[in-house]
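Hey, I'm writing a tutorial for new members on how sequence and structure tokens pair up, and I'd like a real worked example in the thread rather than a made-up one. If someone can provide the structure for the chain below, I'll link this post from the tutorial.
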Amino acid sequence: MARRVWGSIAQKSKGVWEIRYPKPPCPETGRRRQGSQVVRGSRKDAEGRLAELYLTLGSSPAGQDMTVDQYWRLRYWPDIEGLAPSTRCGYRSIYRSNIKPAFGERPLRAITGEEVQRWLNGMTYGAARSARAVLRAMLSHAQVSGDVGENVLMRRYRMPKEPAGTAKRTVNKGVYSAAELEALFADAHGEVWEGPGILAAFGSACREEACGARLDEIGFEDVMVEGRMRLFATYRIARTVQHLEGRLVVREGMAKNDARVRWLIVAPPHSLRLRAIVRQGQEEGRTYLLDDGFGGLMNPNTMTAAYRRWFLGRAHRYIPFNNLRNSYGTVMHSLGLDLAMVGKLMGHTQQSTTYKFYDRPGKDELIGAVASVLQVPEKRAEM
């Protein structure tokens, strides 16, 4: 039986339509309410918008009529706004390339396991793996909200095999030792990546965190260590910056995720060098540690490219900039710092109940933890 007519469409002028529809009753009075919207385009555009409103506001269960593409646009995409920008961009690219062409017009509840297997068979292993993960996450979201009864992507499927002889992509997972880091940064004075590199290699920042620091947000404090005053640099993660889809994406007031909103602690001698970099930048009228020369943020990809080129013709072993953070964790643990505190300094989440519910240490506690394991040299590195 066809459902009764829900809402109405009236043409106001050429290419302009007004749609009216019932809204949920007022919570205070219980009175019924009417909503209206103006849609520009064809009548088909107006009908499509009214259909979307019906799926969102109507009395019929949304998932019964909603297509995969409608669910993506109306439910799933808005709900994953809190994910990291790079993750959302990746999800959207995979959806547009592999999921929408195959299932976009299919009813959300009508996807079968046989369809999924044929879909996976038509892709390479890498594409199938990524597409399966995104569609599985989307259908899990729909299952939790009650829009589908079963997530068919949770079944076991045969994945495509990679062609024989396909070259495996190798990922550089190397890390620097403490001695290598000292030698590297001794030769890096004045390089565009030196300041962010110090925050990464000696403060645990990832690239997008290190590249977003303002000069006036980096603080310096004298701390008594073994009877001597030592200067420590501190930076509370304030923003991240990435280059995504041809533009800089800056997220204010947050790190890569909630657990990573933390204090970065840089010990001497690198805190001294960082203070010199900050002072020089302020004297030159710069705003950011990675400044474009006009008071704005530089593209992190530009910085990374300069870092990679710097190794050409030099004796230093090359590892990617992102691995400086990994080097920090390895070095701090090798110096004797407990893994739990290393995790706190790096903003990691752990599975243990103790770690999950442990209060996040403050700046002074973190400085004390770093100072307790470092042999702070007397020679000052500020130049």
